[in-house]
Amino acid sequence: MIDPSSISPDSATQRTIGTVAIRWHGHQLELLDQRLLPEEERWLAMTDATGVADCIRDMVVRGAPAIGISAAYGVALAARSLMEETWREALAEAVAVLAASRPTAVNLFWALRRMETVAGSCETLVEAQQRLTEAAEAIHAEDLAANLAMADHALSVMDEDKPFSVLTHCNTGALATGGYGTALGVIRRLHETGRLERVYADETRPWLQGSRLTAWELSREGVPVTLNADGAAAWIMAQGSVRWVIVGADRITANGDVANKIGTYSLAVLARHHGIRFMVVAPSSTVDMTLASGTEIPIEEREGTEVKQIRGAVLAPESVDVFNPVFDVTPASLIDAIVTEQGVIEQPDAERMAKVFLPG
Ligand code: MRU
User: Fold this and answer.
1) Is the distance from the beta carbon of residue 177 to the nearest atom of ligand 1 less than 6 Å?
2) Where in the chain is the site Transition state stabilizer (predicted)?
3) Is ligand 1 within 6 A of the CB of residue 172?
4) 89-136: per-residue pLDDT in tens?
5) Separation of 137 CA from ligand 1 center, angstroms?
6) What is the ipTM of this complex?
7) Is position 261 annotated in a ligand binding site?
8) 159-357 belongs to which CATH class?
9) Residue 209 annotated as binding site
């Protein structure tokens, strides 16, 4: 049964922002436990930074922007329980605990740096408590605003004259962000404007963000979605109705290389082969201009049990070795457009990235 209040419009824009995954109550952070979807909608309440870090590490909350937003609230929560004499050191420890939760999505480190800058400019603990809360709320609200802006920018470069299909990977929707979504926000907007024929959602092995989250998020809102096994993507592209592959990002480097969910790189290769355009949609908090190229991005590897089992059901011999990188890097040369809230960078390279992200 759909709870209509969970698919609420943003009060500023009146646009439907999708399924809410992060709720902030001033004294506690509530996270929708995404490990249990789609069977169960259970909220977990966090009151300290360690709890938030555990939720990020264990995938209660996931998706680059949502990780950054949650970490920012984690710092705000940490500040609430500190003592005047030692709050700066204790806050730095909380930031370190949050920073150690997951390595690839740069939004985490971006949000923590922003929170540290705010803390560094505060004279007293009381001031820090107030301003860190405001900063976390601002990061949350800005992410939603960025998603709405990106959807508009993205549509401006999609010149198809009749409704078309797209293919997406992982979950980049309201569940992964402050609301609406990055790649899924663009897909939502295509649907809202009558330009979407169908979205093919890769199931996204091994964690199944596509089948458990994207298919759920879209189908409960009436967006036409077809779930497919990851291995079916080439065959779907060969049928001819998919015009764009649209994905999110966890880190974009100075030359336009993109780290995103494992399997994204193979989609980019397939798209090029089939003459299908490839779009990456991410807020500028995902851009890391300190890294020259994707080879420098730390790629998270998770436990082999994520591949060998699904919710305890055994899928492989217990003793087999597993390689489980959960992100890959798509070279900029395979990307037709990177969309941020600042606009669209077509055929990204170091020069075009620098024009937007290193102005002057
Ligand atoms: O491991 P996850 O689920 O955190 O990975 C998520 C992705 O790779 C998303 O595509 C990316 O974070 C963009 S979410 C708007």
Assistant:
1) yes
2) 170
3) yes
4) 999 999 999 999 999 999 999 999 999 999 999 999 999 999 999 999
5) 21
6) 0.99
7) yes
8) alpha beta
9) yes
Atom of ligand 1 nearest to the CA of 300: 1
Residue 316 C-alpha to ligand 1 middle, in angstroms?
25
- Catalytic residues, by residue number, are 250
| Domain ranges for the chain | 4-148, 159-357
Tell me the pTM. Answer: 0.97
Q: Is the beta carbon of 170 within 6 A of some atom in ligand 1?
A: yes
- 4-148: CATH topology is Four Helix Bundle (Hemerythrin (Met), subunit A) (1.20.120)
| Residue 62 annotated in ligand binding | yes
Q: What is the pLDDT of residues 50-75, one digit of tens each?
A: 999 999 999 999 999 999 999 999 99
Q: Is 105's C-beta closer than 6 angstroms to any atom of ligand 1?
A: yes
CA of 355 to the centre of ligand 1 (A): 26
> Do 4-148 and 159-357 come out as alike in CATH topology?
no
Nearest residue to 257 via CA among 345, 177, 193: 345
Alpha carbon of 89 to ligand 1 centroid (Å): 31
Closest C-alpha to ligand 1, atom 9: 63
